[in-house]
Amino acid sequence: MTQASTPTLVTVAERAGVSRQTVSNVLNSPEIVRPDTRERVLRAIDELGYRTNVVARQLRTRRSFLLGLRMPPAADGISGQVLDRFLHALTEEAQGSGLRIMLFAAADDEAEIREYENLRTTTGIDGFVLTATHSGDTRTRWLSDHDIPFATFGRPWDPEPAGRAAEASAEGVPPKPGHHAWVDIDGRAGTRAATRHLLDAGHRRIAFLGWPEGSGVGDDRHAGWLAAYEEAGLEHAVVQRAEDGVAEGTAAANRALADPGVTALVCVSDSIALGALEAVRELARSEPDRAPVAITGFDDTPVAGAVGLTSVAQPIDQVAARIVEQLRAQIDGRPEDVPDHQVLIEPRLVVRTTSRTEHRR
Amino acid sequence: MTQASTPTLVTVAERAGVSRQTVSNVLNSPEIVRPDTRERVLRAIDELGYRTNVVARQLRTRRSFLLGLRMPPAADGISGQVLDRFLHALTEEAQGSGLRIMLFAAADDEAEIREYENLRTTTGIDGFVLTATHSGDTRTRWLSDHDIPFATFGRPWDPEPAGRAAEASAEGVPPKPGHHAWVDIDGRAGTRAATRHLLDAGHRRIAFLGWPEGSGVGDDRHAGWLAAYEEAGLEHAVVQRAEDGVAEGTAAANRALADPGVTALVCVSDSIALGALEAVRELARSEPDRAPVAITGFDDTPVAGAVGLTSVAQPIDQVAARIVEQLRAQIDGRPEDVPDHQVLIEPRLVVRTTSRTEHRR
DNA sequence: GTCCACTCTTGGATCGTTCAAACCCGGCTC
DNA sequence: GAGCCGGGTTTGAACGATCCAAGAGTGGAC
Which residue ranges does the record assign to the HTH lacI-type domain (chains A, B) (predicted)? Predict the structure, then answer.
């Protein structure tokens, strides 16, 4: 009668002539097992094709090595392409660190918080990855308060949780670090590089096409444009705002280009930039005499590469790697081993044809 | 002393003055418990905030209600946007049926199969969702052979696994249904509707801009264009092929439009269509006399809506719903309850401005 | 009043792993 | 040689649920 069922610790133990615990030790703390015994056990494991049952382990240790991630609403924050790449990178990085990603859905932040609780108590999920942080985000606070490991893609956009520390110490609770673990891309540095690139090419009136004020990400990117102007010691020019979208981008660009002095457009996203590209082409047709208009986008989506759009590339792989690193450390209970809890990653300007319109000085 | 730890069945049982099994029955087969007892137990559950520990349950029952999904390589098969929406819909549908999605990464099909085995024996995953099926796909065969529940988004593109049934019956193995569970979108019907729509508008020479031959999805969409022509009793016109991409689309469109009789372009994807749109605008500029050229795309990505591109919308939600339905049935061991193991869903033509160029008859 | 049938409840065993403490045994000290 | 030490290994219990078979309770029929 062959061993039909999958082998367990006991099966392996019998085969190697030791006890279950010794087998367990070989797997979890091999250094405390005498080398020859270890060898014998390893051979038995190999012969039987034993694989540890993580469910049983989880029941005992209360560690799942599972990370929860809410599928963010498609239209929200990070755009489709970016999310896709992030999910990819995150899955790979997590897997490399012995973690797994579990998805869940939630209608809003409140539902998401309920789901945290739910997943935590029923499935024993170890931690969460949050995306699309925004100002007034209640999720981070809740997770901190419940001592649940988490890290966010996106920095906290609130001014400062000032009342927090005071309140905690007043109650005698050990003062937690007011800031949670997060990784973000330095949008400011991105648009600053893009703007500087255009200034270097001789452009002087560079318009910024942004999202409506109030979104942290958008305001941050706007700030980079401002900063480049300040550093150059110049007066900054036009700002036009619109919701994200190609058509919206065209409209915003047209408004900006109504100012005849504008020779370049720094856009808050590739969608806006694509729309702007359209407007610029139309303009070149209707006003052939006007100086060529340069454009930069943001996100470096595949479509940007296709149409030759200069754009700011987000190193998503790095973001995912750092997030996993931070979560892994929190789960292992050694958060002090990770030097930075807050990481700003500098994006990279990818220069293509749409910004190559050299401009007379 | 307050009850600090999370409540278990025993905690609830004590509170309700019954045994653990009764509590379990209330949860799993409430109909066999006397109403007043049930009421009392439910109250206790509620008061204590008891939540069943799925890990413990899983250890006993060997059911995880977990579905594995490989994060498909970004460039592959279904394009980014579609994948994104699919993941979304799948997560929601699964959650609605008491299932969860767990992601994993794999470099190629072989690695994916290894991961099936791995996830199955260690994590006890119940089934898998496969995307990007292709001809010569070894994954489905492996899963069938190992009796692991799965369903694919995408039909099997192989001619016919003819040798399969014969081989199986020769070995005395009970003949499995040769076909596995799959759900796909009827691309043929989609391009057929698009082409018919253009024929109805008076267009006669409608070019098809497709992918290189050999991809199941691409050939299927090509077939729809052919079918519409045949049904109309007309000679079909030009075909141009290119890899997916905006720039590639522009190039292909230019080649097609070299034929002066062509007045419309049916494109295999929105990317190609966007490129074609570019080519058509350029043409309108350089040859103002030429009749306006109509365009249709495929996938109905957000960008299509933005630029007014007529496109074929894939009802991804339905795909996800059917896949979950099939997997749920397989996991519950009642596959016969699902009427169709193979589902082709008809897409919907979304008419926008790019195909509204009425054409003289 | 006794017995039976039926319904609901109960305690024990089990899934596969890890924790905690006990055990064994050779080497060393006094 | 008794006692102690300590590395290496074993044993018993626990994690929290479900399965199984047997126990208790109720009501009706004779």
Answer: 7-61
Q: Does domain A66-184+316-345 have CATH number 3.40.718.10?
A: no
A37 touches strand D (CB under 7 A): yes
CATH of domain B9-52: 1.10.260.40
Q: Is the CB of B19 under 7 A from strand D?
A: no
For residue B87, list chain A residues with Cβ-Cβ distance below 8 A: 71, 87, 103
CA-to-C1' span, B29 to D18 (A): 12
Query: What confidence tens digit (pLDDT) does each residue in A133-148 have?
Result: 888 889 999 999 999 9
pLDDT at B80: 63
B57 CA, D26 C1': separation in Å? 33
Nucleotide showing the shortest C1' distance to residue A13 CA: D10
Helix (H, G, I), strand (E, B) or coil at B238: coil
Spanning CA of A165 to C1' of D14, the rounded length in angstroms is 39
The chain-wide mean pLDDT, for chain A, equals 88
**Exposure string over A302-321, b if 16+ CB within 10 A, otherwise e:** bbbbbbbbbbbbbebebbbb
In CATH, the architecture of B66-185+316-345 is: 3-Layer(aba) Sandwich (3.40)
The position carrying tokens 């930069």 is A296
Say how far apart CA B312 and CA B309 lie, in whole Å: 10
Residue A173 has pLDDT above 50, yes or no: no
Could you read off the pLDDT of B168-182 as tens digits, one per residue? Answer: 444 444 434 447 999
Which of B82, B121, B147, B274 is most worth mutating to test chain A (most A CB atoms within 10 A of its CB)? Answer: B121
Q: Give mean pLDDT, residues A240-261.
A: 92
Ramachandran category for residue B72: left, alpha or beta (phi over 0 → left; psi -120 to 50 → alpha): beta
Residue B175, pLDDT score: 38
In chain B, DSSP finds a helix count (H) and a strand count (E) of: 14, 12
pLDDT digits (tens, 9 = 90+) for B64-122: 999 999 997 765 334 567 788 899 999 999 999 999 999 999 999 999 999 999 999 99
Q: Which residue in A6, A83, A100 is closest to B102 by CB distance? A: A100
A187-314+348-355: which CATH architecture? Answer: 3-Layer(aba) Sandwich (3.40)
Q: Which two tokens mark B218?
A: 């691409």
